[in-house]
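User: For a benchmark we're assembling, each entry needs the component sequences followed by a predicted structure for the full assembly. Here are entry 17's components. Please fill in the structure.
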Amino acid sequence: MLLNSVKAALIDKQLMSPQYGYTLEQLMELAGLSCALAINKEYQRISATSSPKIFIIAGPGNNGGDGLVCARHLKILGWNPTVYYPNAERLCQKQPFYSSLVKTLEEMYDIKVIKNTLELDVLQKYLDEQKYVVDSIFGFSFKPPIKKGVYSDIIEKLAQNQHNFKTISIDSPSGWDVDNGPIVSENGLKLDPDMLISLTYPKLCSKFLKPEASHYCGGRFISEKFAKKFGIIPLNYEPGSLIIKL
Amino acid sequence: MLLNSVKAALIDKQLMSPQYGYTLEQLMELAGLSCALAINKEYQRISATSSPKIFIIAGPGNNGGDGLVCARHLKILGWNPTVYYPNAERLCQKQPFYSSLVKTLEEMYDIKVIKNTLELDVLQKYLDEQKYVVDSIFGFSFKPPIKKGVYSDIIEKLAQNQHNFKTISIDSPSGWDVDNGPIVSENGLKLDPDMLISLTYPKLCSKFLKPEASHYCGGRFISEKFAKKFGIIPLNYEPGSLIIKL
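Assistant: Structure for entry 17:
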């Protein structure tokens, strides 16, 4: 079974309600960690040397925050991440926790965080150097049509270049309709990730992944009791594991 | 090499400084998670069936908070925890985040949290039923002598009964001097844990563990650069691992 966008939003809201008591900091930490663990499990084995480069594109909301946390844990696990965080200054003012996440990346881990919005030819140069790109632009709360602007440009660029690297989407492929799947741009392009890491539970759009794509779930935030209450069949995680390959 | 208590406190303060940007919620989440992973790795294999019982004793400060998070992740990993959290009401008023942690335990996971202070014979009955007890009473900021009262009573009870279960201490064995090791009570008792999970980095007192004790480290909060700045030799974690057995 798969979650629709309404139920995904409801579950997220419930988790952070006074009844269940999770904080954004906790959920984001565990979500980003599980993304890093999944990426490390899927690709570390086939990387020839240690410290493979990886480019994380962080969007304006909590999906972007998950990407920031993911970048930190990737570094801890031996990767060499660069973070692209357009409009960082404005976003960090709006949500001070994003600012803390960026501080830890820069000051503790010397991770380069690109905080201005790149010209498309500069973004192209970055993409030309990558074997792995993490799409943490939009998550389960995104609703098409996408607004013309920096994020639609980035997604278009990603779609144009996606055959040159592994594209890894967090929670849902950016620009997709969470319930109905891929959206083709007016230039006939769509993002088609090689890997998806669903958080909490897979969404409807995951059934539109290409057959050869890897699909993981992470973010073990809900109990069996809670799952039942929401009509969800619990995933069968292996003992001791924080992620599951579906 | 091992950390003394002054350096441990300084590092903790630095992590949550505006420069490095970690929040208490993040650090506690990752610390408690690594404790659960270490316990699960060390003991899950020798437990005959799934859902082994485990009793977590949470103290008044952040070491207690680590224990609360550890209890949740143990449940997620298939254990059956009961939490003993004396003075819970007062502590949760002082630090609302502890209250959130308790809410998640109770409401999401149906974990029993004993929030009043147990009579010693009632505590004895709980201890009589355990094969695993987690000591998350005091951490690196504890300074002996211990004040006579509920926590000294609990530690004494633990020491009396420790041969009947596995005692697992978080960060430092409770009641010990973080720099100089075990403190023998006036009744001639001392806590002598079977397992220690050091957080961030092992403290001086860890060299006084009994030879057969297991020693893990978790809480990968610091970079190699930061470690060097504090004169610490980074631990050699296995690829992809959040914990290390020392």
